[in-house]
Amino acid sequence: MFYRPEDGHGLPHNPFNAVVTPRPIGWISTRGADGSENLAPYSFFNAVAYVPPQVMFASTSAKEDRGDTKDSVANIRETEVFCVNIVAYDQRHVMNTTSGPWPKDEDEFDLSGAPRADCEAIPCSRVADSPASLECRLTQIVKLPGEANFVVFGEVVGVHLRDDCLVDGIFDVLKFNPLSRMGYQDYTVVREKFALKRPGQ
């Protein structure tokens, strides 16, 4: 099968995000200029640089009460900080609750029961029981083609690692089993790993 996205795929559901899988989930916590807080998952998310450490996530839709974007991007425009919380398999239901199109004044920490803790380097909250949280300062927001497509880049200025996820100095993902996004309504979980040495190493 071959199709041009501009012509449509002819399938019951768009296969695009089922092709690019699995995708890590950035559970983004933000705080607006008015002090209100938001927590929402984004699967267009990844780490993009080592020195300095940098991450990105993309928001691809908008809400009526936020104009051209969603709560996360709107808050980051105001305060220029955000926190990326890594999602463990055990947090899947709490994370899913925060994915709803809730009103601007709805605090997803309270709504979902996600435990809240203060960040250390930025004025924002984080998910207290996440395996890792990355405190970020905004470097740039890039507008992509499309009505509501924005990519947010941030420099990581603080890192929280849950102590029980550290084994002999290694951050061991099998201690918490990362949740990953697939296509449609599907997710997957990391339960095994293997190593490959690069040529020349």
UniProtKB/TrEMBL annotation:
Task: Tell me which residues make up the Flavin reductase like domain.
Answer: 18-173
- Extract the SUPFAM superfamilies matched here: FMN-binding split barrel
Which top-level group of life is the source organism from?
A: Bacteria
Q: Name one Pfam family in it.
A: Flavin_Reduct
What are the TM regions of this chain, as residue ranges? none
Q: Which GO terms describe its molecular function?
A: FMN binding; oxidoreductase activity, acting on the CH-NH group of donors, NAD or NADP as acceptor
What protein name does the entry list? Answer: Flavin reductase-like FMN-binding protein
